[in-house]
Amino acid sequence: MDPRPHTPVSRLLRLCLHALLTGLLALVAARAVGDATVLATAGAMAAVYAAGVLTPAVRPCTGPGAGWLGALCGVWLVLLALSPDALWVAFPLYFLQLHLLPRRWGLPAVAATAGAAIASFLFHGEQVTPGTFIGPVLGGAVAVATVFGYDALYRESERRRELIEELVSTRAELAEAERAAGTLAERERLAREIHDTLAQGLSSIQLLLRAAERALAPDDPARTHVEQARAAAQDNLAEARRFVRALTPPGLERASLPGALERLCASTPGPAVQFGVSGTPVELPTPYEVALLRIAQSALANTVQHASAGRAEITLSFMDTSVALDVVDDGKGFDPGRERPSGTGGFGLPAMRSRARSLGGTLSVESAPGQGTAVAITLPLPVREGSAR
Question: What is the Rg, in whole angstroms, of the alpha carbon atoms belonging to the chain?
């Protein structure tokens, strides 16, 4: 009769209700031994009750449930007219009415059932005492309080269960995001290490071998070994470059840095973000592209989360000896002298400044409360000759 999950507590309550109604009907039958009509009516009520318990269609707030309850109450009224002892069966009926009927109908049904129980005293000429009126009314009040209290506890437990499921899901998503962020950070670190150490070293070896090759005579026996060594260094340099490209962040895998920045501006929620390029674009080493893209992402994230800006602008500038990235917004601004670690696990401006410093660059911040924010990073361009790019 109940579509809700049957917990051990709910199963126990159902069994108690079955036992209570069955026991009260047995009491009515026992006190009416010899009265075949009362016995038959009590048996009929027990049969109707058992049929409803075993019928899956009998559910709260449904037509079959209301119909079965009406039939059960009808048989009870007949039994109540035959025996005054049947008034005790009103107590389990209270629970059924409150359970199967909507609240706007359940309360009137309980009141009507209590009135019928009180009227049975007068109908059978029983002695009228204060308990005649208090008993049925108090029983109805206890039933109402019990059912409504159980429903309130059930709703609270459901809210807590949903909250726990949401927390578990959020924790799983957070763990996955942290794993992804850790993977990306490790990929960036490996790409930077390969570029700054292995690739640069192989490039220097190749240059030294080329110089040695030019210094050797054409018929020098060592010339062949130098050529072979230079070819091996060149092959390993190409392999190192492939490693660096494989470890490039996803935003840079299929497009240049300007293209990745343009997509970032287009996909940023909140303020309108414009992107522009100044100067003649040149090919940058992968660590430079990674650093500029990550700083742009971090700066825009701060703009969306904290600045309450209406618009922002990103400008990538290529100059003769350096490359610069400017992120400007018209938000509420802040005091740059009071930088604090961010609440999302990063360190905001200090992290951007550290990334710029690792490439020999600088990061400056201009802001004031109510005057927007401008973040500018400048990286020196590497010397073209001998670059591992």
Answer: 41
* Pairwise CA distance, residues 317 & 323, whole Å: 6
Burial of 388 (0-12, 13-18, 19+ CB in 10 A): buried
Residue 72 C-alpha from the chain's centroid: 47
Per residue in 254-287, pLDDT tens? 557 888 888 888 877 778 889 999 988 888 887 7
Average pLDDT of the segment spanning 353-371: 88
Residues ≥6 apart with Cβ < 8 Å to 196 = 287
> Model-level pTM?
0.41
> How far is it, in rounded angstroms, from Cα 129 to Cα 126?
9
CA distance 342 to 241: 35
pLDDT at 388: 41
| 328, two tokens | 């400007």
In sequence order, the 6+-apart residues with CB closer than 8 A to the CB of 227 are 213
pLDDT of residue 384: 56
Closest CA to 79 of 42, 32, 49: 42
